[in-house]
Amino acid sequence: QKEVEQDPGPLSVPEGAIVSLNCTYSNSAFQYFMWYRQYSRKGPELLMYTYSSGNKEDGRFTAQVDKSSKYISLFIRDSQPSDSATYLCAMSDNYGQNFVFGPGTRLSVLP
Amino acid sequence: DTEVTQTPKHLVMGMTNKKSLKCEQHMGHRAMYWYKQKAKKPPELMFVYSYEKLSINESVPSRFSPECPNSSLLNLHLHALQPEDSALYLCASSQVPGLDEKLFFGSGTQLSVL
Questions:
Q1: With contact defined as beta carbons under 8 Å apart, do A109 and A13 qualify?
Q2: What part of B 39-58 touches A (C-beta under 8 Å)?
Q3: CA distances (Å), A58 to each of A47, A61, B33, in order?
Q4: Per-residue confidence (pLDDT) for residue A67, from 0 to 100
Q5: Contact state of B108 with A42 under an 8 Å Cβ cutoff
Q6: Contacts of residue B98 in chain A, CB cutoff 8 Å?
Q7: B93 neighbors B28 (Cβ within 8 angstroms)
Q8: What is the mean pLDDT of chain A?
Q9: Do A102 and B42 count as a contact with CB atoms less than 8 A apart?
Q10: Residues A97 and A72 sit within 8 Å (Cβ to Cβ)
Q11: Does the beta-carbon distance from A95 to B98 stay under 8 Å?
Q12: In chain A, pLDDT over 70 holds for what percent of residues?
């Protein structure tokens, strides 16, 4: 079993749709959860950063963490073509010694 | 300034060449990282420098040699690379090693080894 699993996609949605991206993990020591967005031929950009369980909202983006289920989600409301990118979940333990990326989900938002 | 700057953006080299990748940040971050990313794969950690000292080397072949001349600069020296080393090489920084994993990435160097 991989430490972090993520549906690789590609996921194609029409403009304006609500997008749900998900990761599952196996290491119960993970405490910090992140979502990165990566455009083609660019470096990843930090979108959302959460600690432990709960929700965090930033504009059209909402990150959810359910530690009891070892499951994290990123929701994108009113998706735009500019949201087309690869989304990588990432997580680390309390000591920052074990930082892991998920495999990434490719998202295409069609005009 | 919230940027991590990497040069060059593209690099083509032969297997006998020696080249260097450069990375610079002026955010006062004390941890700097090299990652390697193959197409459609997540970044893979190569090296971590904490307070200008090499703290993590993920069993990277010796043909890759990192250097951290000061807290703002990070280099990756390349020698006798193989075609399978062709990838996007990403530099990243974070504020405090081990306590803050908010990584800031550069745009990367797309390396092709012929």
A1: yes
A2: 40-43, 45
A3: 9, 5, 27
A4: 93
A5: yes
A6: 95-97
A7: no
A8: 92
A9: yes
A10: no
A11: yes
A12: 95
